[in-house]
Amino acid sequence: MIRILLVEDQRVLREALVALLSLEDDIKVVGTTERGDEVPGLVAATDPHVVVLDIGLPDVSGLTVVAQLREGHPAIRVLLLTSLDKPGTVREALTLGVNGFLPKGVSSQELITAIRQIHAGRRVISSELMSDALSVGDNPLTARERQILQLVADGTPPPDIARQLYLAEGTVRNHITRIIGKLAARNVTESVRVAVRQGWI
């Protein structure tokens, strides 16, 4: 019996997936949640074989959850089922060592087959997602640069960024200048657009 923990914030989709998977004789949904911060506790309580995980959760990124699972529960298999299929996002997920990555538009049979293959030790990545991920290259931004650019994207001005991150304002502006250069953008606004399009922030 393949034990599944389902992490999906859209209630209708979550309930539909539970109903779908429950029809299979060899699959059992042992837990569900809409929040990423509940995953570690549910993993400890339900001991799943496979976590089916959405990236776009309301509280924390699904990629953050993947990193936590890889650190605390490396034997658990992780299948990302998501609509956030930007190349950079896919590439980061692959770097984190996910076992599967499929768009939400897959058929029910494709999903079930993927779960069985992942449980058996194979890796299942949508060929289209894989091709796009390999075409863009690695994220050129450091963790600090991503953090700063995300704050810029949220509308935070440099003085406030400096206060939040305990940096000098000049340091923040230097980071922004390097970000613009790395992304070959004309200004910080275009840098945000490039990074969002590629899935780098």
Automatic annotation (TrEMBL):
Gene3D superfamilies: 3.40.50.2300
Organism listed in the record: Amycolatopsis suaedae
PTM sites of type 4-aspartylphosphate: D54
Domain spans labelled Response regulatory: 3-119
Domain of life, per lineage: Bacteria
Keyword Transcription on entry: no
InterPro entries cross-referenced by the UniProt entry: CheY-like_superfamily, NreC/VraR/RcsB-like_REC, Sig_transdc_resp-reg_C-effctor, Sig_transdc_resp-reg_receiver, Tscrpt_reg_LuxR_C, WalR-like
Record keywords, A-Z: DNA-binding, Phosphoprotein
Name this polypeptide is given: Response regulator transcription factor
GO MF terms held by the record: DNA binding
Lineage of the species this protein comes from: Bacteria, Bacillati, Actinomycetota, Actinomycetes, Pseudonocardiales
Domain HTH luxR-type: residue ranges: 134-199
Pfam families: GerE, Response_reg
One BP term from GO: phosphorelay signal transduction system
